[in-house]
Amino acid sequence: MEDSAGHALGTRVTVRLRELRFDAGSLSLNLIATLGRRPVSPVERLHGVERLRSWCAGVGLLLRDEDATPRTVESLHALRAAAYDITTAVLHGRRPNPDSVELVNRRAQVEPPAPRLSLSASGLHVDERRAHLSADALQSLIARDLVALLGDPARRSRLRECDSETCRMIYLDTGRGRPRRWCSMQRCGNSAKAARHRRRAAGVPGNSDGT
Length: 211
What we know:
Largest sheet: 2 strands, antiparallel
Shape: globular
Number of strands: 8
Number of helices: 7
Helix content: 40-55%
Order of helices and strands: HEEHEHHEEEHHEEH
CATH architecture of the domain at 27-159: Orthogonal Bundle
Structural class: alpha+beta
Strand content: 5-15%
């Protein structure tokens, strides 16, 4: 059941829930994470030009001023939906929508900016992403990141979906120990522990909640 705002009853859309996430483990997964709480009660985190600029800054990219537009936001939403469809298909062993695959391949065809060497106070490093990007080049980097991620068996095997039923964020588990259950221990992990403690105190079973 939903309330008048379209959110599932029993959930609260807080400021923290609307925060952009940059901890998914790759550029394309960080884009997917701009829509939170899939599929229970989606929370849009990438809305408007200012949020677009903030997201680009958060992933270390610069967008040309003329491409910081609502149209670019809409294009990223479309790419995000396709990337999510393909990634969840891999996670759950199903066939992705052919239109999703075609969209990602089409966006990846645009030539990305060439890598370049840069000198800084700390020495020489490769600077691949600091040039101001067009909207097409930005989407090419994201699409190519997804292709590279899913094309690498080792990295693909580390794809996870947060165990929290009200999060389900997709992330890359880079730990060396046992598989990580939560997108973040500080967020969903701690929320689940608190929920278990409340259930034990009340003497009743139940599912974990998250953020």
